[in-house]
Structures are given as structure tokens and as C-alpha cells.
UniProtKB/TrEMBL annotation:
E.C. designation(s): 3.6.3.-
Keyword NAD applies: no
Protein name: MoxR-like ATPase
Gene3D superfamilies per UniProt: Magnesium chelatase subunit I, C-Terminal domain (1.10.8.80), P-loop containing nucleotide triphosphate hydrolases (3.40.50.300)
Domain annotation ChlI/MoxR AAA lid: ranges: 238-308
């Protein structure tokens, strides 16, 4: 029996429709859209880093509309306080008690726009929410929605007025993605769509939130062979032992890579994982978590290059079986 039997007998076709729906707004960035949905299928958080004006915010809004859920936006500024994000307890004179007023984090899809423009103190307020899907205010914990994901955008760290995100926070983002500039044909298509009507306002949901949660459960049920777990562990261990890296992949990163590969298998219409699922996602899942040595940075090395070399040096496992269970 397929792990996703039930409401969605063909989840790959549903996800395909979702990707196509977002492409009505975001032109020519299919690979980025697919990886964004892969992370969200795992309940993972996404960091979108790119220069201003390439459509990061529009992408997040289009995704929220596609899965038919409520979304809220946090515009990160240097004077943003932690309570502006998590919520605050307010004294009610009628009841003579403090009442909790939830902040924008209490939403299924939260857009933190220009995350690295807010202070480290406010950035730290997101750590508990990202890891445990809850926030603690005045000593009382409050659970966030089951489908909560944080989709954050940031400008490159060398832009004026930005704060570097700490390693602990970067490690909580399942993937880091970029959009990049469109080519001339894609940019003309975008202008043509915007000239006629606002594509985003016309975007309709493809599925509802409850159905989206069922898709997430289906991704978690994808079969993972022991040899593939060992493959992931060898990749992570190699980053920890690499001479050009000061900080390698954490155990959380290994788990994120496995979960993301499961979601890719679901997107490809399989009920089991294969090595290509892992290899395709090594860079977006691991690269932002690595810290290069000063010598490597001076030599112009990039985390992506190091990961490519690591992959080239590790034998790809042969599955003992690839059943559809």
C-alpha cells in the first residue's frame, strides 16, 4: 500500500499543479520554487537571500496563496522588538488579569522580510519558534499552528544596515535559496503580466491547509533505505573533517537532508528515496551551515565547491532494493 493513499492518490501531480500555480507569478525560477516546496513539505524553514527587487517577497506570498492558508508579514527593521514578533501580555482591568495577545508568528506561513536588518536580540526571539513551534512570553509557553513555517528574506550581508545571522539561527533554516536576475525573455514576460493585471491578486489556491498537512505526512512516510542513511552520515562527517572548514554540518543538518530528500522523492512520484534525491539537495541544505577557514575564504573558495568535491569523493550507495512500499 502506498504511504500516501487516501485523499491524494497522486501527490506528485498535486505538487506539480502547485509549482505551476506559483510560476504564474514568478517567471523562470522553477527550480527555486520546487526546492521551496520541498522544504515546506518537511515543515522546514527557508532563507531566501538575494539583492533587492528580484521577487523574494512576491514568491512567499504566491506560495501562501497556493496552499490556501493565512500568511502574515513581519517587516524587519533595526527597532523591531521581540514582543512585536512573538506577542505580548497586556493587563485587562476588567478581569484584573494579564491576557496574551499573539504576535504575527501565530500564523501558518510567516514572511520575515529582510530578516538581517533587525537586531540580533529580535533574531534570537525566533529560535524557539523555529525549533519547537512555540514561543514563551512571561514564562508561559504558547504553541504555534501545526503548519507553521518561517520564510525569511535577507539582503546579502555586505549591504549597508545588515546584521549577520548567527550560526545557531542559520542551522535552523532547512534550505537557503536564491532567485537571481531573470534573463531578458523572462523579464519581458514579467512586465507583460504586470502591465495587464496583478498576477498575484488573481492567484487561486490549489489545495487547502488541511490537505497540505496531509501532503506533509505523506512526505514523512517515504521509505529510506539504511544505505542512504549511511550515505548522508558520510557526507556530514566529511564536512566536519574537511581541512578548509571550521564548522561542518550538524546532526540537525543530517536530519534536514534526509527529510528534504524524502520530500523530493514524493515530488518525483516515488514512495522510496534514491541517492539522486540526496545529491540534488546537498548544497541548498548544507552550504549555508558551513563556515570556511580564513585561508579558504582568501583563496576564493565557496561552500558549494567544497561540497561538490566531498560528493565526488564518496561512493554512491547501491540500494539493496527499491520497492514501492
Amino acid at each position: 500500500m502506498q504511504p500516501y493513499a487516501g485523499l491524494f492518490d497522486h501527490p506528485a501531480s498535486i505538487i506539480e499543479r502547485m509549482v505551476n500555480n506559483v510560476e504564474k507569478v514568478i517567471v523562470g525560477k522553477r527550480e527555486t520554487i520546487e526546492k521551496l516546496f520541498i522544504a515546506m513539505l518537511c515543515g522546514g524553514h527557508v532563507l531566501l537571500e538575494d539583492v533587492p527587487g528580484v521577487g523574494k517577497t512576491m514568491l512567499v506570498r504566491a506560495v501562501a496563496r497556493t496552499i490556501g492558508c493565512e500568511s502574515k508579514r513581519i517587516q524587519c527593521t533595526p527597532d523591531l522588538l521581540p514582543s512585536d514578533v512573538t506577542g505580548v501580555s497586556i493587563y485587562n482591568p476588567k478581569t484584573a488579569e494579564f491576557e496574551f495577545r499573539p504576535g504575527p508568528l501565530f500564523t501558518a506561513v510567516v514572511l520575515a522580510d529582510e530578516l538581517n536588518r533587525t537586531s540580533p536580540k529580535t533574531q534570537a526571539a525566533l529560535l524557539e519558534a523555529m525549533e519547537e513551534k512555540r514561543v514563551t512570553v512571561d514564562g508561559v509557553s504558547h504553541d504555534l499552528p501545526e503548519a507553521f513555517v518561517l520564510l525569511a528574506t535577507q539582503n546579502p550581508f555586505d549591504y549597508e544596515g545588515t546584521f549577520c545571522l548567527p550560526e545557531a539561527q542559520l542551522d535552523r533554516f532547512m534550505v537557503k535559496l536564491t532567485l537571481g536576475y531573470p534573463d531578458s525573455v523572462q523579464e519581458k514576460q514579467m512586465l507583460d503580466r504586470l502591465l495587464r493585471k496583478s498576477s498575484l491578486e488573481l492567484l487561486k489556491p490549489v489545495i487547502l491547509l488541511d490537505e497540505w498537512i496531509q501532503l506533509q505526512n505523506a512526505a514523512q512516510a517515504i521509505h529510506v533505505d539504511d544505505t542512504l542513511m549511511e550515505f548522508i552520515v558520510r557526507i556530514s562527517a566529511a564536512t566536519r573533517e574537511h581541512g578548509e572548514l571550521l564548522l561542518g554540518a550538524s546532526p540537525r543538518a543530517s536530519y534536514a537532508l534526509m527529510r528534504a530528500a524524502q520530500a523530493r522523492a514524493l515530488m518525483e512520484g516515488r514512495s522510496y528515496m534514491i541517492p539522486d534525491d540526496i545529491k540534488e539537495l546537498v548544497v541548498p541544505v548544507l552550504a549555508h551551515r558551513l563556515i570556511l577557514s580564513s585561508q579558504a575564504r582568501m583563496a576564493g573558495r565557496k561552500a558549494e565547491h567544497i561540497l561538490a568535491n566531498i560528493l565526488a569523493g564518496i561512493a554512491v550507495p547501491l540500494l539493496r532494493f527499491a520497492s514501492g512500499k
